[in-house]
Give the backbone structure.
Amino acid sequence: MSGADGAQAVPAAPRRFHGPCAAATMGSVVMNREMGTHADSAWPPHTARQVRLTCIDDRLTSAVFARQHGAAFEVRLAGGALALTDDRQEFALKELLVPAALGPLDTVFLEVHLACGAVSLAGHHFEQRDAERAFLAAVLDEAVRVVHRAAPSLTVHTRLVAPTGDALPVR
Ligand SMILES: [Zn+2]
């Protein structure tokens, strides 16, 4: 399962975790499970086959997403998919691919939202709503490329949402 560019496809990706981060810790837990050192079979299995990368914004509740798309693993980083396009890219990608080691994962949802404080803090300010949407659409395009390069077997969906969590047309 290797892409043309040599990137490892899931589920091997989490084994590449290294360094002192949460993903690395989770990676070692995954390997311990695979080696049978965790007696956790009494717990329900993971059922979600999808993961959502969204912003830390408290208005973006999991319930709104779940109503439209069902249960999902959830990764929250400031700016959501923006994290895949800046200096947090490697970390964001690792977090996003952790669920691939916990069960079958086939779908990724990359999300950004209007009126995002993380986008403002990154220095992006917009006079017009159209300019904001165009910027966020470009962020999503780049984030999709990043995920496809790392995990070409995954289906990637993008979501532009209002601060209420309701989906809007990306373009
Ligand atoms: Zn935000």
Remarks:
- The longest strand covers residues 107-113.
- Strands lie at 50-54, 73-76, 107-113, 155-161, 167-168.
